[in-house]
Write a structure and sequence with these properties.
Elements: H1 3-17, H2 38-45, H3 49-56, H4 65-74, H5 79-90, H6 105-113, E1 119-122, E2 128-131, H7 133-138, H8 152-158, H9 160-165, H10 169-183, H11 191-203, H12 205-211, E3 222-228, E4 232-241, E5 250-256, H13 262-272
Antiparallel strand pairs: 1-2, 1-5, 3-4, 4-5
Helix pairs in contact: 2-3, 2-4, 4-5, 11-12
Amino acid sequence: MNRRDELAAFLRARREALRPSDVGLPPGRGRRTPGLRREEIALLAGVSVTWYTWLEQGRPINASVDVLEALARSLRLDDAERHHLLALATRVAGDPVPDVEDAPDALVRLIASMDPAPAYVLGPRWEFLAWNRAQSHLYPMIDRLEPDERNLVWVFFAEPTARELVVDWPDQARRILAEFRAGTAGLRADPKVLSLVERLRNASPEFAEWWAQLDVAQFQTRVRRYHHPRAGELAFEYQQLTPSEWPGLRVVCQLPLPGDDSAERLAAWRSFA
């Protein structure tokens, strides 16, 4: 889908997920489909039914930020969904997409200093640009991936050893996918993102099913657990930083939990392997 089509699909999905009681309306009669009607959302947002219908149809119309904020409130969107709506509706088609081949040296040195905590740098399309020694210990395949497979979302959905490594893979994969959709809303027309999504649709039934559900989420600190074939059960706190000098990049660090020896066991396995 292009940006306008995705905006239209996102609005429909969120409208259909609401019930009249969610927004203080009586249930009414004769509802043949789930969710609110277009005229109900238009009434709540203070816009015309025709205008809102055109927006849901993906027509090339413009909307002010104030109107979009009113729609977000009417649809009961959370912060991640609201930001996603604004990104889809206000991003200008043809905006340049940053193309980064290598991580800046300062970020390479930063993640190297984080050892023995696994850490890596992601590019605008969530491609791996750099990783430290601990990340190679945690996920050895990262050193052998082909360039077009060196992407966090591809690894999660299409690389078998990664699926075996991550405990609670379905929950973690769905969260990664929702964060990826939110984080790349402005790149939806980018040929490399379109190619990645199409390849993932073909490679992973789960990706194809969950991508169609249009879920979005902001990053949240959380604990990620691994079943490492050599180092055993590992647990790290998943943290993400956005460098102010390179806002299109992400630095991800997996911090050891207080009192946990996962990082030491991971380093020791590699030392004696």
